[in-house]
Amino acid sequence: MRALVTGGAGFVGTNLIKRLLKDEYEVVSFDNYSTGFKDNRQKGCTYFDVDITEKFDDWKEEFDVIFHLAALARIQPSIKNPSETIKNNFDGTLNVLEYARKKNTTVIYAGSSSKHHGLYGSPYAWSKYGGEELCKLYSEIYGLNTTICRFYNVYGSYHIRNGTYATVIGIFENQYLNNKPLTIVGDGKQKRDFTHIDDIINGCYLAMIKGKQNEYMLCTNKTYSILQIAKMFKTKFKFLKSRPGERFGSTILNNNAKKILGFEAKKNIKSYIKNFISVN
After folding, report:
1. Cβ-contact 180, 245 below 8 angstroms
2. What's the pTM?
3. Greatest CA separation found in the chain?
4. CATH architecture of 2-279
5. Using CA atoms, how far apart are residues 253 and 150, in angstroms rounded to an integer?
6. Per the CB 3.0–4.6 Å rule, which of 51, 157, 190, 193 could disulfide with 219?
7. 256 contacts 216 by C-beta, under 8 angstroms
8. Would you list the domain boundaries of the chain?
């Protein structure tokens, strides 16, 4: 089996490639390294410096499956630079689907829980949901096998701790390691469903095997407020002013991931943070 992973040098992509290589897939990565890191490259995977916002439908190679993970993935940067986010997330997805259509290749699309705070809450939310709609369009018109896996606040190995695209858990870890107070935006009552990267990768695998033109929420079905998460680190924290685009909570509706895929999250954020503190 041959797999293409877009965004293969990023957080989720790196973990997925490790799993695919372990299962003896032949793996190719497309990444322009705008948010991914060359240090994440795994032995056995072939990496290409490719910008998916530029058409690559004349690419000669063929694959059995494409995991489309490449995206600019944060709300605040998308508000500051909407055109870059929309070009990367929407236009990039269109190019991936065009390539897949011509090769008749299955596509697993990484959706986002951001759709729950309103499609117009941020350019990021709109662009990621727009990608979902493109997948459905290509399935409906061209019979392309596309499956949407919507990710919920992923954390774990290779998540980003520094910079514009750092995750919440990554930021807290970095602040903890540097003996700085954890920074909480707003009052900290915003609730999130935090899902471990291992569960996300397992869900993507199940979607590849059993998905077939559907959409699935890969989550734990349990939410914690940002303040609750901060308190788990058992250290100092401080509050920052609220920012535009921040949503209050994630809502899980009509999730058929367990019924159809047999998906069930195995890991929880409490144990993860407890272990992090114990080794640091």
Report:
1. no
2. 0.94
3. 54
4. 3-Layer(aba) Sandwich (3.40)
5. 12
6. 193
7. yes
8. 2-279
